[in-house]
Amino acid sequence: xxxxxxxxxxxxxxxxxxxxxxxxxxxxxxxxxxxxxxxxxxxxxxxxxxxxxxxxxxxxxxxxxxxxxxxxxxxxxxxxxxxxxxxxxxxxxxxxxxxxxxxxxxxxxxxxxxxxxxxxxxxxxxxxxxxxxxxxxxxxxxxxxxxxxxxxxxxxxxxxxxxxxxxxxxxxxxxxxxxxxxxxxxxxxxxxxxxxxxxxxxxxxxxxxxxxxxxxxxxxxxxxxxxxxxxxxxxxxxxxxxxxxxxxxxxxxxxxxxxxxxxxxxxxxxxxxxxxxxxxxxxxxxxxxxxxxxxxxxxxxxxxxxxxxxxxxxxxxxxxxxxxxxxxxxxxxxxxxxxxxxxxxxxxxxxxxxxxxxxxxxxxxxxxxxxxxxxxxxxxxxxxxxxxxxxxxxxxxxxxxxxxxxxxxxxxxxxxxxxxxxxxxxxxxxx
Length: 431
Known about the structure:
Elements: H1 19-34, H2 37-47, H3 52-55, H4 57-106, H5 109-136, H6 143-169, H7 173-179, H8 185-196, H9 200-218, H10 232-237, H11 248-269, H12 271-277, H13 282-285, H14 288-306, H15 313-333, H16 336-344, H17 346-350, H18 353-362, H19 369-378, H20 382-396, H21 406-418
Helix pairs in contact: 1-5, 1-6, 1-9, 2-6, 2-8, 4-5, 4-9, 4-19, 4-20, 5-6, 5-19, 6-14, 6-18, 11-18, 11-19, 11-20, 11-21, 14-16, 15-16, 15-18, 15-21
């Protein structure tokens, strides 16, 4: 095998803070903002008086932006390059945080959803740049290891986020839920207005932090990497290729990301509400997403130490997708804390799927890498669709039985790890 297809012919040079540290800080921000949704779902369900389906519009508004903005993000990156594109993405996220202030002041659910969509738009741009960037900052065969390191940054932030926001927004909310049942319409509205206002200060802090990080990124020594340069082997394999749609393994990778993000978001963002449906107080349930993300961190550590030395990226993906099937079945067959525990443990099962999909799907794309990355980012829209389907099924069946939708998702992920990542490849790149 020659040089990885996504490398420039010259080694990446930098001065000052290493690029991997800067990207690590960005992944921390991704995690913090993304996993706030797990608290926003039960919080806004109470504050805006929603049912299950309506409350999961939180994830829909946030993740659908990836579908809408992924291709435009690829165009933006062609104009701005990676570094300016990342700074712009952080600025857009800050604007989304700003929208939360009038949303909270008026207790308008549609404004909350708009703020989430704008934040997701900024994240789509950031993810389109940062995921391939960390993939190409080293050998292709160890890309999953580097993405696992980024995953730890992401999930540590994600583990902290629901605790921090939950401490503010869900404080004494179990008592409040009982109290408002006996209140008059006017008193109830006033109490819910106060509850809605709890997010104002946290989101002002988030907005300021995003602006500061955007300025730092724009002034950093983060190098540009030319993903349009192909080595001779990849260029020969891609002779005659005129469209990104001529890479079946990438198309299957997009579907795999769609289903994977769907089950990842289901595990992390529904577990608090699911715990409450199992009779567990929200004051306790608010910690469940943190347990899910701790499981992901454990899995990432396995990836760092074991890939590719002891296990290939594809084999790691096989093993952990099977684990997802087993944990889901156990959660469906048990009740109470045991059932909730196995939904939380899906964080462990999900951990090494994302790091493996990226290098497997992007291998051999050469000059098509940026557009391929954009399509993979579109797949993140699975986080919009799957929770919404789950919420509808939870209203029709029950929050527990709705988890059946995860089984076919994990089966397809397993298929991609076994065969899908090699479909249609003219040059097989070692996984």
